[in-house]
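Recap from last week: sequence in, structure out.
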Amino acid sequence: MCSKALVYLVGAGPGDPGLITVKGLACLQKADVIVHDRLVNPGLLRQAPRGCEMIDVGKSPQRHTLPQETINALLVEKALAGKVVVRLKGGDPFLFGRGGEEAEALAEAGVPFEVVPGVTSAIAAPAYAGIPVTHRDRTSTFAVLTGHEDPTKADSGLDWQKLATGVGTLVCLMGVGNLPQIVAKLIEHGRDPQTPVAIVQQGTEARQRTVTGTLTDIVEKAQAADIKPPAVTIVGEVVRLREKLRWFDTKPLFGKRVLVTRSREQASALSERLRELGAEPLEYPTIEIAPPKDIAPLHEAIARLPTYDWLIFTSANGVRALVDRMTETGTDIQALGRLKVAAIGPPTAQALAGYGLRVDYMPEVYTTEEIAAGIGDVAGQRILLPRAARAPKQLAQALRNKGATVDEVIAYRTLAVGAPAELKALLENGQIDIVTFTSSSTVQNLAASLRGLDPGKALEHPLVACIGPVTAKTAERLSIRVDVVASEHTIAGLVEAIVTAVAERGRDDER
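Predicted structure tokens:
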């Protein structure tokens, strides 16, 4: 057997990608093969190395992609081929996840494996609904049971007599289909019919929904709310704490699906902030960052760095592109420290700070007029402006009008990324609540990629938010209605503007 062969049985957590463990994430980042369940958040799969083989073996009540025995054999096969295999399972691999069976198969085949426990939905879903499974004043005991087993069968493995009266909190996984029978068994074996019950659908995710009631009426309420799997049912006095302790579904963007169109390299900061506010970011980059077609002008500009007085960066991409090329050509980055440096926006300044470079000027307002006015007297000075291939020309011209010599050099290109069919379907079906644009190129490329769809029509339903007036004008030229333009042209400003707009819409709906 190859010495590299190893299988990690990794718990992916309950849905929120931030709840995977540090060790679980490290396993994903070195995997050759990932064998995953259907409930695994797609964002986790993007943590895998480029070229990693992805195998979906997801099961649902309606479909079984692969029998368990076949999954076991697949893990053995991939490991024996010398691969590092991650078996990524929703929740915890050893809690109703059949991870024990997979570990047995690996042990019998002589394949080395490790188990990386995960955060189980049995605790996380109630917690995200504001329900602690234990509480000093309510109960010190809880039990987790599977609702997948038919409670009415003669040889049930569940001792309903003891479960009904001997445990403070009952947490039932996979029990939506059998909810009427479970409720009936609990009441039949002595549980008070007025015991509080909560059902949490898609716990820890932005689409989480919670229905509360009692054993007497929870079946009717769940049916009225059309509760579907995956869902967790909590039975016990701790459910009464929800109204006091709920925290997740009160966030300002809770439940909103937000389209993030930034490049893959830049999307994480925006997505992370949206997720913190309760939204579900959907990353479908419309652009990717690439080197210039002709790299020679950038190399020539780097060679002439001592001749410049000012270096103006309009984006973090420009900072990274220039520094990367300096590294390749063996130019000391400290050469930039001898120039005055201007950064347009906090993210650009942060990128410079990451390289230990100071910023001499950062405008408060990111318009051409404000930048040119704020930089001061530049008459007779030389300015280097590393920029994107299709960046607007107005800033360079405004600086020339002040008497400066400005060398614009293409440091990077933004390339269009086509919209996948699934994104088109989400837009056509009105399943996206907010669309974000962080540059003119994101607008242009999304519009171009929606082949067969009118951009204005496709974006008719969602709230459309732009990072600044230039981006908004590009959208309007393409007949896309713009609802929000950030007054501070940064990611933080964009998110703040979205939160304000959503709150105002909510107040309007209540009137």
